[in-house]
Task: structure prediction
Amino acid sequence: MSQSFDEISAQLRKRHRQSARLKWMSLGALLLALAFLVVFFADMLGKGLPAFQQAQVQVEVDYSEQASQLPLAAVDEEVRDLVSRGWLRTLPMQMRDNPELLGTTRTEWVLADGQVDQYLKGHASRLRDDAKARVDRLVEEGRAELKFNTTFFSRGDSKMPELAGIMSAAMGTVMTMLVTLAVAFPIGVMTAVYLEEFAPDNRFTQMIEININNLAAIPSILFGLLGLAIFIQFFGMPRSSPLVGGMTLALMTLPIIIISTRTALRSVPDSIRHAAFGVGCSRWQVVRDHVLPLAMPGIMTGSIIGLAQAMGETAPLIIVGMVAFIPDVSATFTNAATVLPAQIFTWSGEPDRAFVEKTAGGILVLLSVLIFLNATAVVLRKKFERRW
Amino acid sequence: MPNHPLLLFLVAVLVLGILAFLVARAKALRVRASGTAMYAQPDQYAWFAALSTAGPALLVSGVGGFLLLLLGAEIPLPWLLAGSLVVAAAGATLGLRLVTPDFHARQAIERVIRFILAGAALISIFTTFGILLSIISEALRFFRMHGFWEFITGTVWAPGNSFLAAAGRADDAASAARFGSVPLFAGTFMITAIAMLVAIPVGLMAAIYMSEFAPRRVRTLAKPVLEVLAGIPTVVYGFFAAITVAPLVVSVAGSLGLNASFNNALAPGIVMGIMIIPFISSLSDDVINAVPDSMRQGSLALGMTRGETIRHVVVPAAMPGIISASLLAVSRALGETMIVVMAAGMRPNLTANPLEEMTTVTVRIVAALTGDLEFESAETLSAFALGLVLFAVTLSLNLVSVIMIRRFREKYRVNNL
Result:
């Protein structure tokens, strides 16, 4: 049964090869995961960056009496089908607001039609060949070019891609997050303080703890069902409003804030509490004046992360109806509104190809905000974290 | 406009509270100035007075409003608010009367605050009960219309005509609505299985590399970068799956001579798997790190190679934790909504071919609850029945996962998991 040294060392080499293989395979898995990330971001940037540019054409705008009745007459026939219909429709209103425009003719850079925009960006476009030739000529004359897309950042939703923007959704996100924070932050911190600093270790406390862990793992869409059945059906709050959406998201964010606050409170050493009790503070005074201020950076970090998560959430908001078509930018708590992820969802369902670009552009904005928030959380933690 | 009296009421309570605060403090200062020793500081008396003014008033108005709403009665808002204001006045009187040298204001505040904090902690319980209650009550209404067994075992999901039935015109309908949820669950499990086939091997191997092989620098860098994958909103993944991955799957399948739908189950499955990778890798990494080093040292001392140590010692020891992480991941995949809404199909389809169009439970929930809402319609209510099943499944998965991780923790006496 004995093996020669050669056999044994051959076996050993084989075992070491196996070991090395495991190492490379596991490294490969990590690299694969990172490659997914790179491909994903490259894809989003490639699709979304063009949305920040917008084709504009330089035309003679004739603010005549006729144009105020029939806006199409305001521009030359040669370029009539190249400028944005949506922009033309706003002409009579502009003339009403600025009467001195009447009777003048001005050379202006105006929004081009969505199809011209797609053509200039080199995408498939429904423009006819003669229109394409005219666009090419305009470009040569320097009268048509891609400029920075201010419309995208300043307007609300629209059925016309060249007029669609994310501002109303961004406003809705801000209002919804205000509600979420106003509800989730105090309740979350109070719950955590109660569980860490006040609660006796009994059944009731354990039940709350188990319950919080469960809440953190419940699918987000079920919170939407709760919002629909309780807030909208039972309490009769307005559907699609940031109030309902924010409260639904707050219940979802609550476990995140509670868990991170508890971690932050636990990291404050007991010597601080002992010292405060030693000079005669009551329990609440200890918490308020000593423990909470020391735990604040950790609490803020957790809250920001929870907020970022709520900001990207879509499913519960769809259920409570926050996928409305909102063309006007307004700051409201009780009227119908939409949020950035919901806007992305709506646009992704538009059949017009030009909206793919808008969708990806909206995604880039959302991702930038989320990355900024998370980076803030990391910086906060790095800067204020104390090792005891 | 119901907001108006409410706002007025809140302002009134606030003003009363501030008044009580100021008056109580003035009184306490006066008593102390007269040379009497008091149990508490003047500010504490003042805070107690403010709390006893605003607290009961808010409680009465809140609970009263809730009870009336529960009973379905029309709320006599002015009366309720007026009653609350009377309570506030009574509270203020009590608070002011109690500004005496032998009243322990600080301890009283302490008790009130403990009460408030416990009340905040109760909200998480209310949330769970709220979810349960809302889902169960609506689901029961659904099961009264369509039998439970038909729902669990039926293989045809055709809610189409339930709107007509709700309008009392069921006879007009060419065919009756049918709610058999088996195709939905088949689709859900198919997509979840694909996601797990992507996420578990990649996530686990990445965790093994990070905890066993990687230099410290790589580890501290790779972990947060992987977490970025988990931080990307699901709606973004959905767009990625629908616009980029699905056409890719179709063209790859086409080059292999297979016919794939643009709403195939593979694309959302793969993308969901990518989303879940950091979830598994991060939890597994923690668990593998918690395996005591003495076990590694013992194994290496016996002449095992590094690979053998990992395969035969470390991973088996960490297995309960890894399974627990995988179960949590499965529960996330089951409840994931946006990716499947955007990339998977709408048509219920009972098939084993991942290249075909399939739909999931969450897709049907969203489909039933968007657009016109009619709470009497069976289709709307079916969303709650599906939600109930989803809730039950994810809850039991989470519970099993918690039990497994607890076993692991007890075995190796680690406390930070």
About this structure: Chain B has a mean pLDDT of 84. Residues 69 and 178 of chain B are 35 Å apart (CA to CA). Residues 181-412 of chain B form a domain with the MetI-like fold fold (CATH 1.10.3720.10).
